[in-house]
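Appendix B. One record, verbatim.
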Amino acid sequence: MSAERYNRQIILEGFGESNQKKLANASVLVIGAGGLGCPALLYLTASGIGRIGLIDGDVISLSNLHRQILFSTADIGKLKAETAARKLAELNPEISIKPYPFYISQTNILDTIKPYDFIVDGTDNFESKYLINDACALLNKPLVFAAVSGYEGQLAVFNVEDGNKNKTNYRDIFPIQPKKGEIPNCAENGIIGVLPGIIGTMQAAEIIKLITGIGKPMVNKLLNYNLLQQSFYEIDLIAAPDNAYKIPKDESSFLKTNFGYPKDDKHYRVLEIDIKELENLQKKDSTILIDVRETHEIPKLNSANYKQFPMSVFEDLLDQEIKENNIVLLCQHGVRSIAAAEYLHEKYGINKNIYSLKGGIIRWKNFFTS
C-alpha cells in the first residue's frame, strides 16, 4: 500500500493508517457500470478498496456518454465492464479489479455476490433492484441502494442494523414489485447528466463509511435529493410487518421467486424490428399496431392506424382477444414496448407474431410526423 497515494485521507483526523488498511482489506461489488456505477467505481478505486468487482453486460453507446464518465467517444461499441476495469486499473494498479461482462440474472447473482463484503446497486430498472435486494437480504450482504430519474435521486443503506437492532431492505419501502414496463425508467423519462454523478459519489462515500466506521451511514434512512432546488430530506425507515412481503429464505425459494427475469436461456426474446419492417407489416391485412405510451405523450399518432393501450391500463388489453396475427408494439424509446410484447407472448405464445419497434417513436420521429 502506497502511503503517498492515500496521503490526503490518511492524514485526516479520525482516519489514519488503520482505516486505510480496512479499505485495503475490503471487497466491494458494483452492479451496473452506468451513470451511478461509473462515479462510484472511480472513487472506490481511488480510495484504495482492496478488491472491486463490476458487473455489466451492456456495451457503450453514444447516449451513455453525457453521464457515464468512465467512457469516451472512442469506447462506443465496447463492453462496459471490460472497458471500465481497464481504466480503473490505470487509475490504481495497487488494487484488484475484476470485470463480469454479463448481466445479472436469477441464476448467477447469488454466486456472484457471495465473495464480496459490500454491494452497490447501480442499476436502473425495478427487476434488477428487487433481484439485488432479495439476494442481499438472503445472504445478509450490506447493500448501498440508489435510484435516479429526471432531476431527483434517492440513497439508502440496507441490511445493516442500527442501534435499535432495526434492519431494513428495499421491500420495507416498496413491498410489491411494479409490473415490467409499468413505470418508465430514465431511458423513457430522461435524466440530467450530473445527477447520477452526485448520487453515485454518495454511494461510494457510504461504502467508505461502512468499512471504516467513520461518520454515520444512511442506515435505515432514505435520502431524497432534488437537484433543481439543491435540497435534501430524509425519511426514517422501519421494518415492515412480517406479513407485508416475503424475502426468500433459501436458494431454492429464491430461484422460484418471480422477479420478471427469465430463469434460463430458453426464454422468449422479443423480436425487435426497424421502420422498414414496420412498413412491410403495415401492408399486411392481419396486422395491428399498438401504442403503449400514456395518453399525454407526444407526438400523437393517427388513431385510424394505431390503437392506444397505455402500459398503466395494459391489463385491459390482456383481457381482450386480439384477432390480428401480427402485433406490433410501439412506445417512446422502445423500452415499454418490449415489456408489453413479453406480456402478450405469455398470453398467445407462438400463435401470434409479436414485435417491438426498436428505438421507439423518437428514433423514427420523421416517419411518424411527416
